[in-house]
Amino acid sequence: VWLFNGPGVTLLESVACAPFRDEFWRLQQSRVSFKVCRNALNKFNIDPDNLIEGCEIVPAGIVALIELQQDGYAYIKP
After folding, report:
1. Nearest CA to 41 among 13, 63, 77?
2. Would the pLDDT of 60 be above 90?
3. What's this model's pTM, rounded to 2 decimal places?
4. Residue from 39, 27, 19, 38 nearest 1 by CA
5. I want to staple 4 with a disulfide (CB 3.0 to 4.6 A). Which of 8, 41, 45, 47 is the partner?
């Protein structure tokens, strides 16, 4: 699972990630899911319809992060 929040959501706009579309598709085929914070989309004025295909919108990235950690996932911040 990759969780995008804050300015990271801008990376998933169709136009911005067009050069990487194949890589995103391969990751999705490998069962990597992309969760995107609706609060961040609102803050950066991004229409969810303009995201690459396969993104799951979650109401709040921080809540999704906590739930994932409770399920055993680890948070890695570059």
Report:
1. 13
2. yes
3. 0.88
4. 27
5. 8
